[in-house]
Amino acid sequence: MSERLVIFDTTLRDGEQSPGCSLDPQAKVRFAQALAQLGVDVIEAGYPAASEDDFRSVHEIAASVEGATICGLARCNESDIAATGAAIRPASRRRIHVFIASSPIHRDHKLKMSRQQVLDRAISGVRQARALVDDVEFSAEDATRSEPDFLVQLFSSVIEAGASTINVPDTVGYTTPGEYFELIRLLRREVRGIERVRISTHCHDDLGLAVANSLAAVEAGARQVECTITGIGERAGNAALEELVMALRTRPERYGVHTGIRTPRLFSTARLLSTLIGSTIPRNKAIVGDNAFAHESGIHQHGMIADRSTYEIMRPEDVGFPGSQLVLGKHSGRAAVRDRLGHLGYAVPDDALDELMVAYKRLADRKKEVFDADLEALWLGVDPNAPHGFALESLHVTTAIGARSEPTASVAVRDSEGRLHREAAVGDGPIDAIANAMARATGIAFDVRDYHVRSLTGGVDAQGQATVRVVHEDREYRGQAVSTDVIEASAQALLEAVNRIAATRAARARHRAGLADAAFAGASA
Description:
By secondary structure, the protein is α/β, with parallel strands linked by helices. The chain contains 17 helices and 18 strands. It has helices spanning about 25-40, 50-65, 80-85, 105-110, 115-130, 150-160, 175-190, 210-220, 240-250, 250-255, 265-275, 300-305, 335-345, 350-365, 370-380, 430-440, 485-525, and strands at about 5, 5-10, 40-45, 70-75, 95-100, 135-140, 165-170, 200-205, 225, 255-260, 295, 325, 390-400, 410-415, 420-425, 445-455, 465-470, 475-485. The strands form five sheets. It has an eight-stranded parallel barrel with strand order 2-3-4-5-6-7-8-9, surrounded by seven helices.
């Protein structure tokens, strides 16, 4: 049987040190609960001595989060360790994580301490922490730039003082996988008492090697990895939890370890963090990015249609991802276009596919991505240059600040037969109110999934471009409009999307009528 690898998550401590990624105490508690549900073994909840907010957050997490060991970070000094012990006291499983820098660069320039002074401070810190809790972790900051013989002496001494986990941080992301592997092997050979403790890694991504270094350490015998969700952290960040876990799961024959992570929660946990810190996940982010299971190349799509293992080494559902996506774009081929139309309910005969692909490539050259609604409209022969079904005649929006006030919008639209439709609605904001009123006026229900405005020109009279993405009957439609009034641009963009829906519905009805007529004619014959 494989060995258990402890997953130590430091998103709430090291990860929160990323510029712009700070969280309030309530958000920290919410995310710590998500980490516990994910199956994280140790949650480093913060650095209690850093501030009153940090102390309170760690204390609240310790009091309310079950299922994981709650850990607090402390320098090897009395006040830090005392504060950390008090902060984590309510937890049923507690750990104090003490650290001191060990490299000559840090000893000389930051600490102004000798080797012996660092050694004495480390032993004292571990003993003080051990008097408060049974579970003590010791980190030698900047270990990968420290003298190996000093690391052996330092770790041997702190193990004797009571440390149960020793951490070997690559604090500045300096080492390489081969070097890190050899360092862990050396420590396993030379450190006294190493067989009684767990070796941990903590790798930063300054050279883009954090995950690779962590995996090399696991191969060398480390049995705890310190990481963060999506790899956030100081500078370029830390090793990404989801990448480590899925590498171990995908290649069990190489690493021989398993974790307790509930991998179907990875996607939702990453999305929760993104929401809490207000930072989007890059589309090409491994495991949890929007493109992680998306395929546009025609060759790749052909392979995926035949068997998805041709281009996917893990299943999207294993990480909680909604599913594989064959993204239609200018690189997509005949197989993907025909397959997608088949999923939409349309059978494309061979003699029609060549002509369709000419029109498709022309459309794909103009758009970054071709959506189902675009493809359906193309097949049904919807003319994108045809007159709009609805035209905006008037728009009035009222919004106010106050607990009991609601944004309200009234719209008047004229249909293709010249009839005027007036409606009003409230919403969570002015754009939501416009969307609700427009849905009533046109009789077409839709959900707004994405909305953004950007400036096209400078100055106070700048033109604003509004872009919306709406969903109607499981199809996505987009609309775009430009105006010096962003509210008007937003309304016109929504109306453009509605007109696309109306045009496609009409073409779909004509298509079905044609099929019915053909079937009737065949039966009569």
